[in-house]
Amino acid sequence: MTGGGGIAIHGVGMTFGGSRSVTALDGIDLHITSGEFVAIVGPSGCGKSTLLRIVGGLLDPTSGHVDIDGKTPNQARRDVEFGFVFQQPTLFPWLRVLGNVLLPDRVLGRRNPNSGPGSKDIARELLRDVGLEGFENHYPGQISGGMQQRVALARALSYGPNTLLMDEPFGALDEFTRDRLNLQLLEVCNKTVSTVLFVTHSIQEAIFLADRVVMLSPRPGRITRIAEVPFRKPRPLEIRYEPEFAALAGELRGLLEGVDDDEMALDRP
Ligand SMILES: Nc1ncnc2c1ncn2[C@@H]1O[C@H](COP(=O)(O)OP(=O)(O)OP(=O)(O)O)[C@@H](O)[C@H]1O
Ligand SMILES: [Mg+2]
Q1: Confidence of residue 263 (pLDDT cuts 50, 70, 90)
Q2: For residue 62, which ligand has an atom nearest its CA?
Q3: Tens digit of pLDDT for each residue in 240-253?
Q4: Is a pLDDT exceeding 60 seen at residue 144?
Q5: Distance 11 CA to ligand 2 centre (A)
Q6: Is the peptide bond before 234 cis (omega within 30 degrees of 0)?
Q7: pTM of the entire structure?
Q8: How far apart are CA 54 and CA 56, in angstroms?
């Protein structure tokens, strides 16, 4: 791979057409440097998924543009520089765990830099990294939701993307599973991927994982705050109980006061 992964978002806006047009995003400017882990938080419907899809070349913005190390998002996507992980793991039920992780290898063929005789070994190693050693031959229906999401993560990493784009990947999981996957994600990213853009409803999760947390306003989503997270990595889960962590979480939560969003309310102590 190119060793890239920097993302420059310039004045991006998105208005969905139709008889009742909806402006989802307005004037988003953000520069994510290669190697950074950036979390996007904001109330439901503020345009987080829309922004992720624009960065990943799945949707064209109606204003502004995104630059991925000199490429358009579409070009970067075609050059398989992105790994996508969504809220639902979207595994193929008739393929075993290993088959699901190897699927991009088969679909992408030579566009996949990890393809070739070693691809099975890479897939097995990734499954080990996400704690799924011994489950290679299970079917998705035979493993839990958290395990399925780990398969989806291993699959996204299997073709060596520069950038991981994650849209509430752990939102459907219980708190303990989410904690464990947060730790594994930091480990595995540290080893294999350079840049991560991570959408979440949870301020705690955002601060725990990210180098910077970007807060969006209610729709149309605009950046209201970019917070640097002052903790070095690797981070133990216990940092969440430190006063500095609580102060930052409190400050970010304060920006959402008055925002009518039940899911955000769940995040409050
Ligand atoms: N394809 C589309 N056509 C029309 N409107 C859309 C489309 N996709 C998203 N929207 C609208 O754009 C706004 C932002 O949607 P988006 O899914 O990006 O929000 P979100 O911040 O990810 O919300 P959530 O936290 O609930 O996932 C919403 O009002 C949504 O209805
Ligand atoms: Mg969303």
Answers
A1: very low
A2: 1
A3: 999 999 999 999 99
A4: yes
A5: 20
A6: yes
A7: 0.91
A8: 5
